[in-house]
Amino acid sequence: MALTILSSCINCDMCEPECPNQAIVMGAEIYEINPDKCTECVGHYDTPQCVAACPIDCVVPDPQHEESLAQLADKFVMLTS
């Protein structure tokens, strides 16, 4: 499943540079994750780098974009080919 950033985001700028897919952008008020680009770092890293970088734990799974590991891997292939 893609990830999302909660409204408790403090805009610390830690997550955006860590995303290998450039899925994180500054929104109107807080950072946002584009679910079409988010692979939870599958294909790049063992764990989502934005989750690891977030100092307040506001990056969480997005229940509106549930995806299997295979779907995330297919998305990685599509984004990198």
Protein described:
- The strands form two sheets. A two-stranded antiparallel sheet has the order 1-4. Strands 2-3 form a two-stranded antiparallel ribbon.
- It is globular, with a radius of gyration of 12 Å.
- The chain has one domain (3-80): Alpha-Beta Plaits.
- The protein has helices spanning 49-53, 69-80; strands at residues 3-5, 24-26, 31-33, 59-61.
- 26% of the residues are buried.
- The model has no long low-confidence stretch (mean pLDDT 96).
- With 81 residues, it is α+β, with helices and mostly antiparallel strands.
- Helix content is 21%, strand content 15%.
- A hairpin with a 4-residue loop joins strand 2 and strand 3 (31-33).
- InterPro entries: 4Fe4S_Fe-S-bd, 4Fe4S_Fe_S_CS, YfhL-like.
- Residues 1-29, 31-64 form the 4Fe-4S ferredoxin-type domain.
- This is YfhL family 4Fe-4S dicluster ferredoxin.
